[in-house]
Design brief:
alpha/beta, 7-stranded mixed β-sheet, globular, single chain, 5-stranded parallel β-sheet, 500 residues
């Protein structure tokens, strides 16, 4: 998989540059402010990171505007932009060890997953959208013979992208790949909790041949750099992934001043329906793997298992047994199944929800505590609750940690009602040996992605996004171009004299 034998030593030897990348150069914040990057693995300081604010965002947006208007990227032939994007993808692959180490150092996930999943998927995303550049065709409308109506896609202009900390490099690629492929200029604001791989991506983009000012990265806090980007009148389109609460604020900011389009991918409380004829063993294995993957820090994590009462005991016992195999360990060891949550704040949040579950009367089956505290890091054991009632906080609110709530259902109708009784609608799953039954249920579930006898399986060719408070718009697939392009109609009047 890689040539690294001692990941901890390799990461310790990395030279980490926390400065912003604006206009093709690494720069400090105009005010000179920084914040500490603290690794959740052991609580140690990794680097000082540029604390971008409104002036830094303005500098980046102004440069991106000039770059877009002069066409240094937008006006290049599609095949030329494609070559740059493919080189970009190749460089991400070539630097996979470094990027994986930075990802794990920054947000605590096991390095084996950082390298095999996050970094490789980011490279695949860049390559896929690069390949798509010269394969998108415009349209001719079916008008009368007296007119020729051309429908063309044009880049929207300057794209502001704000991404979260749970999949930093992957979420960045989901935004920047289609935005750059369409010919836009981009200003990316990574989370202050995990900004290192986004900054290295910008370095590699320049090395691949992307012109100066076309891709800029300004780290900083949401209430400073993020708010400034959302408010900036020089931004034409804003793409945001994060919490629903913050997403609603971003939409409000974007509506002030010059109106800009906004696309949000937000939180989730995804239901995992296990019907009475399901393969309980397969369902339990899949549910456990999905809820504990990435320490439960996934917006689409199946945090609500809604299980037919006749099989709920068997399902609970199997998930409890499987949870033992997801105990947190040293993220630098290849066999570690679960790492640290991103920081002390998130640790306290997860532990607070566990306490609320106990207070509300749910039964703790396994887990429920901080572990590996002696390392100085932030680790939570895989946690399973049963006897959960629909009104409990652990059943309704996004925890963003390795916590599963199991709720009983006495009928298919009751299971569907419980599944849809949520402000969220990002993902769902239904398990049944009867495919007709499973598909009938799938059609009734209000979610952007519904899995049947599976979970969290995906491909870059399919769209990802949600219903309701889980956001709007779609990442991935060709549908992502809808966010980053404008449709223009050019109407050409033709002579009617030659018509037969």
């Amino acid at each position: 998989m890689d040539g690294v034998t001692d990941w901890a030593a390799y990461a310790a030897g990395l030279q980490v540059d926390g400065r912003a990348l604006i206009g093709g150069q690494r720069v400090s914040a105009i005010a000179g402010d920084t914040f500490d990057c603290i690794s959740p693995i052991d609580g140690r300081k990794v680097a000082e990171v540029c604390r971008g604010q409104a002036a830094d965002i303005d500098r980046a947006v102004q440069g991106a505007r000039v770059a877009f208007d002069d066409g240094r990227w937008a006006h290049r032939a599609p095949r030329d932009r494609k070559k740059v994007m493919l080189r970009f993808a190749d460089l991400v692959r070539a630097h996979a060890d470094e990027l994986a180490a930075l990802e794990t150092l920054d947000m605590g996930k096991p390095v084996a997953m950082s390298r095999a999943v996050d970094v490789q998927s980011a490279a695949d995303c860049l390559r896929w959208y690069g390949e798509a550049i010269d394969k998108l065709y415009d349209e001719v409308a079916p008008t009368a013979r007296t007119a020729l109506a051309l429908i063309t896609r044009e880049p929207v202009g300057v794209v502001g992208a704000i991404v979260p900390w749970n999949y930093p490099i992957l979420m960045s690629s989901w935004k920047i790949a289609p935005a750059l492929a369409a010919g836009n200029s981009v200003v990316l604001k990574p989370s202050e909790k995990a900004a290192l791989t986004a900054l290295r991506l910008a370095d590699l983009a320049l090395q691949a041949g992307l012109p100066d000012h076309v891709f800029n990265v300004v780290p900083g806090f949401g209430h400073e750099a993020g708010q400034a980007l959302a408010l900036h009148d020089g931004v034409d389109c804003l793409a945001f992934t994060g919490s629903t609460r913050t997403g609603k604020q971003i939409v409000q900011y974007a509506g002030q001043g010059r109106l800009k389009r906004v696309f949000t991918e937000l939180g989730g409380k995804s239901p995992f329906l296990v019907l009475d004829d399901a393969d309980v063993e397969a369902a339990a294995r899949t549910c456990a793997s999905a809820i504990f993957f990435n320490q439960g820090e996934s917006c689409n994590a199946p945090s609500r298992a809604i299980v037919a009462r006749g099989v709920i005991d068997a399902f609970t016992e199997r998930v409890q047994a499987l949870a033992a195999g997801f105990q947190p360990g040293d993220p630098w060891q290849r066999a570690t199944p679960m790492g640290a949550v991103v920081d002390r704040t998130q640790l306290d949040t997860v532990l607070g929800y566990i306490a609320a579950g106990l207070q509300d009367g749910a039964r703790l089956v396994t887990g429920g505590q901080q572990v590996r505290a002696d390392t100085g890091g932030f680790y939570v054991s895989p946690t399973v609750f049963t006897d959960v009632q629909p009104g409990m906080r652990i059943a309704r609110e996004e925890i963003f940690g390795p916590v599963l709530s199991i709720l009983p259902a006495d009928s298919i109708e009751a299971a569907v009602a419980l599944a849809n009784d949520s402000n969220y609608g990002l993902a769902a799953s239904v398990w049944s040996r009867d495919l007709d039954r499973a598909l009938t249920v799938a059609r009734t579930l209000r979610a952007g992605t519904v899995h049947v006898n599976s979970y969290d399986e995906d491909d870059i060719t399919v769209p990802f996004g949600g219903f309701k408070d889980s956001g709007n718009g779609r990442d991935k697939s060709l549908h992502a171009f809808d966010k980053y392009t404008e449709l223009k109609t050019t109407w050409i009047r033709l002579s009617a004299g030659l018509a037969p």
